[in-house]
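Appendix B. Raw example, untouched.
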Amino acid sequence: MTTAIAFTGVDRVEVRQETDVPPGPGEFTVASTVSLISSGTEGICLGRRFEAGTHWDEWVRYPFAPGYSLVGVVAELGPGTTRVSLGDRVAVRKPHRGRVVVTADDDVYPIPDEVDDLAASWFHLATIAQVGVRRAAHRLGDRVAVVGLGPVGQLVVRYVRAAGAAEVIAVDPIVHRVELARAGGATVGLAMGVTEAVEAIREHCGGVDVLYDVTGAAPVLGQALGALDRFGRLVLLGDTGSPSAQHLSKHVIVEGLTIVGAHDMHGEHPASAHAPWNNPRMGELFFRYLARGDLRVAELVSHRFPAHRAGEAYELVSRRDPAAMGIAFDWS
């Protein structure tokens, strides 16, 4: 038996024991050490905060196994498995569970010795952030604003600074989140709502070339468009559960703006819009940055819980605790 976390209904979290399944041909079992909550996605799934007919509605069926950023050690090999060895440390896109079986079709991310398990557990949020940054098609010296400084927004700040942005303006009404973004490379921090921030950005630099909406809050799209300079690009990286509540503004036509959608699944296939940078290659790059010290995520971890306290962890997510950032489960 192994411990697993499940959503059994709206705002209902259960820690339960599930039967272990042995790995089949070409498969292997990972004994988990750390898994990271994707607070935006998992919060929407747990509270069923989405409209009928959306892709969320098609995806979330209770009991639902949350999570997709898990790190562990290869503990058992199925017949004919050669791509890993016993004892290898790997990251895999699997739910919060004490032991998971990795199939031949699953992506596997080998973890360098220089990267610890907790930092490695950010790998999938890091690939999601990279999808957005690549979709933005940045130019050296871009003026950039990042609205919404949760875990993915924090990673976007760090990536665009590394990509050579001249200005990285970090926007969030929570002061602590703005401070974390400043520590991660933001050149300007605005602890305020998006409407106020648009005016402040206009006063500061006349408008930005690229703006990331990483909030998942439907009203922000229309409000944020006014911060873009003429012919600017808005990258919609926060996936709202209420797309019908998103609206455009006059700026789209008048200023010739481009709106770019970016989603987790865009990195799943080698023929993606930013090929050859599929998820495994983006994960490898993330680990290389961590190993060299070019990027840090340790300061983004706010809470760690053993799996049996999953209810407490998701209480932070559900109430959108302003002190919560990276929330991890310890399985070792």
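End of appendix B.
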